[in-house]
């Protein structure tokens, strides 16, 4: 499943290269990889295999809704080795140990990066993390093709991420339909009011607001503060990126967010589990 063609690596780039260039290159590389992998197992074959998976989805959206009902933060703790904006985050990198520490510390869900070129992730990381705990798992990747949705179910993820900035409306709607047909949840990520309006048309209750500006790679929690009040109350708002303290979580909760996707703050800590407890105000 992990065999990929030889294409240019995008793990590093110069300051003169803008973030949209990096995003475009990641998406282009992803499309090449998917085209290659689908020659090894076509859509009909992988969809049949995905429907035969014996383990049931763990209920990613349900886990967040339960936290919301309890008036406690639904923390989605991220597992990734590196990122374009921060470089290498953790060495040695042990997805199993990280997943177990997150679960013990009170995370609601996991997010696992499986993109290789910039985040140094693999689908094996997700499989290992999921098998190490009982938490629902989001596959964090650049999903652009239905083939990837079935691959996501095949490796055991319970939720997919759809990034509106890289998808047309009809593409996003098709991907949601494929995911729902497999009983997976869908977290739709937006960065602007225009993307939010497009996302609200989709058949999903999970709206992710990414505080990272895709043009500059900088983060600003004001993105959630501005967009969250525009989200209908029947949706679960997940604030993503730039969350560093328990005070940040309280501030974002006040504007309507009940889910919080956090990665770098936890992974840069010597003890990710203890850092998670501090974010939740339990240290």
TrEMBL record:
Lineage: superkingdom: Bacteria
Organism whose genome encodes this protein: Acetobacter fallax
Family of the protein in this entry: Belongs to the TrpC family.
PANTHER family for this protein: INDOLE-3-GLYCEROL-PHOSPHATE SYNTHASE, TRYPTOPHAN BIOSYNTHESIS PROTEIN
Catalytic activity line of the entry: 1-(2-carboxyphenylamino)-1-deoxy-D-ribulose 5-phosphate + H(+) = (1S,2R)-1-C-(indol-3-yl)glycerol 3-phosphate + CO2 + H2O
CDD domains xrefs: IGPS
InterPro entries, per database record: Aldolase_TIM, Indole-3-glycerol_P_synth, Indole-3-glycerol_P_synth_dom, Indole-3-GlycerolPSynthase_CS, RibuloseP-bd_barrel
Pathway: Amino-acid biosynthesis; L-tryptophan biosynthesis; L-tryptophan from chorismate: step 4/5
Keyword tags: Amino-acid biosynthesis, Aromatic amino acid biosynthesis, Decarboxylase, Lyase, Tryptophan biosynthesis
Enzyme kind, highest EC tier: lyase
Protein name: Indole-3-glycerol phosphate synthase
């Amino acid at each position: 499943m992990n065999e990929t063609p030889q294409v240019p690596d995008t793990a590093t780039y110069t300051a003169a290269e803008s973030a949209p260039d990096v995003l475009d290159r990641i998406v282009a590389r992803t499309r090449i990889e998917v085209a290659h992998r689908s020659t090894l197992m076509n859509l009909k074959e992988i969809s049949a295999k995905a429907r035969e998976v014996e383990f049931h989805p763990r209920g990613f959206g349900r886990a967040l809704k339960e936290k919301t009902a309890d008036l406690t933060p639904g923390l989605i703790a991220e597992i990734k080795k590196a990122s374009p904006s921060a470089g290498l985050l953790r060495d040695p990198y042990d997805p199993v140990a990280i997943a177990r520490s997150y679960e013990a510390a009170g995370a609601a869900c996991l997010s696992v990066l499986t993109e290789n070129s910039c985040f140094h992730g693999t689908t094996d990381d997700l499989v290992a993390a999921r098998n190490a705990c009982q938490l629902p798992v989001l596959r964090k990747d650049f999903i652009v093709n239905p083939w990837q949705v079935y691959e996501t179910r095949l490796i055991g993820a319970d939720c997919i991420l759809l990034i509106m900035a890289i998808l047309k409306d009809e593409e996003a709607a098709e991907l949601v339909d494929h995911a729902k047909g497999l009983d997976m949840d869908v977290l739709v990520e937006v960065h602007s009011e225009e993307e939010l309006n497009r996302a609200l048309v989709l058949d999903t209750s999970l709206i992710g607001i990414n505080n990272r500006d895709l043009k500059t790679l900088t983060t600003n929690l004001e993105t959630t503060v501005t967009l969250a009040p525009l989200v209908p109350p029947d949706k679960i708002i997940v604030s993503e990126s730039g969350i560093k303290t328990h005070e940040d979580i309280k501030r974002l909760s006040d504007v309507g967010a009940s889910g919080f996707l956090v990665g770098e703050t936890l992974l840069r800590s010597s003890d990710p589990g203890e850092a998670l407890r501090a974010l939740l105000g339990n240290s």
